Amino acid sequence: MFEYYKNVFGGSQIGDEQTFYRLLLYAKAFLERVKAPDAVMDTEAEQVKNGWCALCDALYMRLSALGLRQEQWDGFVREYNDRDLFSDLYKTACLFFPPALLYRGI
User: Fold this and answer.
1) Nearest Cα to 51, choosing from 84, 104, 5?
2) Which H/E stretch holds residue 23?
3) What is the pTM (predicted TM-score) of this model?
4) Domain spans of the chain?
5) Do the strands 68-73 and 76-81 form a parallel or antiparallel pair, or are they unpaired?
6) Cα(1)–Cα(18) distance, integer angstroms
7) Half-sphere exposure of residue 91: CA atoms within 13 angstroms, side-chain side
8) Contact 49, 31 (CB under 8 A)
9) Residue 81 forms beta bridges with which residues?
10) Dist. CA 31–CA 96, nearest whole Å
11) d(CA 66, CA 45)
12) What is the DSSP letter of 97?
């Protein structure tokens, strides 16, 4: 899957295979939580693979502290991220996965 990420999807954010597979586990777990309970996913479909790669990129960018803000006062430093991880991932999933897969009947 890492070769697919690099060669077909054109991913360049994640540089090493170990990090990619760790993020892929999170991406798959996220998708299991947001997909329709009875939806069946063809794991060999290009659309699904592209979606997983996009979710891995989104996770990597989030964990790389994009959107990180810092406040300093009296020698104290506070860092926080003002972006909502779930929202970012769900928006990415909506771009790549078919609506029927994510439709939860609400």
Assistant:
1) 5
2) helix 17-34
3) 0.76
4) 2-102
5) antiparallel
6) 11
7) 9
8) no
9) 68
10) 11
11) 30
12) S
